[in-house]
Structures are given as C-alpha cells and as structure tokens.
Amino acid sequence: MKKYLHEIIKRKDLIFTLVVSGLKAQHTNTFLGYFWWILDPMLGVVVYYFLRVVLLGAAGENIAIFLAVGLVSWRWLASVTNGSTKSISKESSLISKVYLPKAIFPLCLNLTQVINFAFGLFVITVFLLIFRVKPTLKLFWLPYIMIVQLIFMFALSLIFAYIGAFIKDIENVMSHIMRFWFYGSPVIWESDRVPAQYQWVVQLNPASALIGSYRNVFMYNQSPQFLKLNIILGVSLMVAIFMLFYYSRHEHKIIKAL
C-alpha cells in the first residue's frame, strides 16, 4: 500500500486540477454562478425556518442559527456521499487512457466539498452576526471537528465510489438512504425531540455527533462531543486505511467494469 500512496502523492498536480475543475463544474452555465455557494445554504435555512416556525410553530432559541449550522454541515456530508457513487465511473474516459490510482477521484471530491463547506461557514457567520451571537474560545475546536468529518467522509466515499463503479443503480438507492438519514439526524430538529425508546438512533448516528459538536462550538459555548468524535475518527481511519489497501489490490477490476 505504501507504493499506492506514493502514486497518489505523485499526482498532486492532477489532484489540484480535478478539484478546481470540480468547483467550476458545479455551477457552470448558471446565471448566478459561484454566488450559489452562499445562496444555496441561505435558501435552505429560509425554507426550513418557514416549515418549523410558520407552519409547525416549533420555534426555538436562535432557530435560524440552529438551522444554518445543521444544514451547512449536512450539505457537506450529503454532497460527498451522493457524489462518491459516480466519482470513479464518471471519469471512465480518463481512466481508460492512463493509469491513475482510482482513490484519487473520491479524494478530489472530498477536497472540493471542503471548499464548499468553507462558504457555508461564511453563511453561518452571517447569521451569528445578525442575531448577535458572539463566538467564544470553544470555536478553536472547529478545525478538529472538520478534520473528523473529512476523514469520516473520505472513508465513506472510498466505499461508495468502489461500489458505484460496479453497480450503477446505487446512485438511485442512495437518494432514498440519504433522505432517511437526513430525517434520522438532528439537522432541522433537536435530538431531545426523539422519544426515549428511539434515542439509540441518535446516539449511534455519526451525523448527530458531528452536527451536535458544530452547534456546541458555534452556539452553546460548549466543547465538542469528544468521545463520539474520537470514536468516529478512529473507526474512519481504520476503514480508510483498509479501503486504500483494498484499492491497491483490486482496483484493476474497475477498468473491466467501466
């Protein structure tokens, strides 16, 4: 696997090019262009604010910030998970012409979405300023939470990218799985709203720990959920290492499948 990692590192220029092209492709031929990076999460907050506050009457303290943090962090998770299913298969023309470590493609997807998440942080900052919520020293834990999520998403994307190269239908299946995962995570609602007999769903959900940790440092002047984050980090590292090893031994099968 050491040789495989070296092959990935050797192609750092290609990785940079793929990340840039991935960013450009997201809003190509749109009227507002890159402004969608900021407008999209803002519109999401408006929609779910209307749903919770106006239609359901379920307002809460700093509900707009609550929704912004949840939706921005979920957007990163959903974008990587959905995009990973075709991250390798959509590059079939390039893969057929030259040898490339296939793990490069889910890696580039993750790096692209990190940049998108940075624009989402700008949106969160805007809401913090509007509602006069002052950040505290707990915000210094933000990079750690982001690193945990990045490694978690990288591990997941390696799995789904490999499966997606062989099973094209997984993209359709993932849309339903992600919808279930969305409503099973405290993205637009508080985790304590879940009945006691179903709290185990929240406790075992990695997205709950990530979103809850973001809210702790942005809104509640609390530390992240370190125990859960450390477990997610440890398991994700093991999965990522295993998948890189698996890619190094079996990715030649992908060419035949494409």
Short description:
By secondary structure, the protein is mostly helical. It has helices spanning 2-10, 12-26, 36-55, 63-84, 92-95, 104-130, 142-166, 170-183, 199-203, 206-220, 226-250, 252-257.
Structure description:
The longest helix is centred in the middle third of the chain and has 27 residues, at about 105-130. The model has no long low-confidence stretch (mean pLDDT about 85). The chain contains twelve helices and no strands. It has about 260 residues and is mainly α.
Furnish the topology, listing elements before pairings.
Blueprint: H1 2-10, H2 12-26, H3 36-55, H4 63-84, H5 92-95, H6 104-130, H7 142-166, H8 170-183, H9 199-203, H10 206-220, H11 226-250, H12 252-257
**What is the helix/strand order?**
HHHHHHHHHHHH
Note poorly predicted spans: none
Number of helices: 12
Q: Could you describe the largest sheet, including whether it forms a barrel? A: none
Helix content bin: over 70%
Strand % is under 5%
| Sheet/helix structural class | mainly alpha
Beta strand count = 0
Mean pLDDT: 87
N-to-C span: 23 Å
What is the C-alpha radius of gyration, as a whole number of Å? Answer: 19 Å
User: Overall 3D geometry?
Assistant: globular
List keywords for this structure.
single chain; 258 residues; mainly alpha; 12 helices; globular
